[in-house]
Amino acid sequence: MRFPIDGVRVGHWTDASSRTGCTVLLFPVGTVASGEVRGGAPATREFDLLAPERTVDRLDALVLSGGSAFGLAAADGVVGLLEERGVGYPTGAGPVPIVVGLSLFDLLEGDPTVRPGPAEGRQAAEEASDDPAIGPVGAGAGATVGTWRGRDHARPGGVGLAVARRGDLVVAALLAVNAAGDVGDPAQSAAVADGVFAGWPEPEVGPLVGRSNTTIGAVVTNARVSTHGCLLLAQSAHDGLARAVFPSHTRMDGDALVAAATGDTAVDEGDLDVLRVLAVAAVERAVLTSC
User: What is the CATH number of the domain that holds 188?
Assistant: First the structure.
């Protein structure tokens, strides 16, 4: 599926045998962004600079990686490549690429000693295109869902991509779905329909034992939105995640989503609410297409 926002390119590095990888989104000049973390166990790089009150409002690249905190090193390779290309925030010493990194926990799925690093991040960026693969690739290579009930209930996760449109406004969502919760199971709502929830699994020893977890990704719009508007979009994106994953945003998840605006289409204040609804829809569909 072609990425539906002009100027945005996506590349993957995948180690299928070790079940890990990384995914890089490269953004056009002028892209602004913000983000929000709702899971209890995030692994992030440079995420704080996305806050609306920070000085720099641009985003040059987003790196999604497996390998837990080790995988954050993949962003270093992207920074180096963009510096060579002259991309980044201008300073007296040259451009400083603004690259945010998000990682998920996949160390139990393959060889835990193999993790994306600078070389792998650079390779993913060099191979970025507007026609990215989805499924068990890149940051989704070792992804699973449903592990909150125990690893014997795990199903494959992966990278999902979906789009929602209204008129000229477009919102695309690309996520690496590695949720502890279940995805797309109609029994989820039925489990609590009578007000009594009987589906909670027996506790294991420690909250992370035997589980892989965390959903990370981005919603991208062609609209011209401020960093504060992007923060609102990121919040709505998490609503879409909660619609598709049950339970979501647990202490075992590091759920983190970035909202980026490329600025091609001007919007008024009312359109921001339209964009937020589109973000909910796009994220929900992206999660469902990932598995």
Answer: 3.60.70.12
